[in-house]
Amino acid sequence: MDGSVSKVNSRAALGGVIIGLYEGWLVGFGMVTGLTDIFQVEARAMIEGLKLAWAHGFQQVVESDNALLVNILQNGLAENNSVAEVRMIHTWVSKNWQVRIRLISRDCNRVVDCMENEARGSLDQLINFFDPPIFARRILEADMHHVLSAKATFSLSFFL
Fold this sequence. Notes:
single chain, alpha+beta, Nucleotidyltransferase, domain 5, two-stranded parallel ribbon, 5 helices, 6 strands, RNA-DNA hybrid ribonuclease activity, RNaseH-like_sf, membrane, nucleic acid binding
């Protein structure tokens, strides 16, 4: 999940992708919002991703490139946080399912960056993509190849 803020039009875009390890693309989303604080935008992206995962019955690892947000969530500082979006994440993560929050590098978020750059629609209207949009397919294929290669390398070195 990821978000970005435009200084030009005081709007932000957020997006996310739920990807199965072997199935590839499961569902993606994009949204334009009026939030202008990047931390809130990133948190809102995580909320929307959690809602979507819950609605589809996915249990997952949630990845974010926002180190502050991940740190707050991993260290139990979300429940009483002053940012409403962070408290909402805590509520969603506390439901009866397993969610792990993990920090990733910005380079690993290329498909999501692509989704948020193409976010359209009315303000705060979530757009779901049940098939990968054309503009995201090549990046998705490259990322999936990289992830599977990294997991295969890790598995081999782990058992040696």
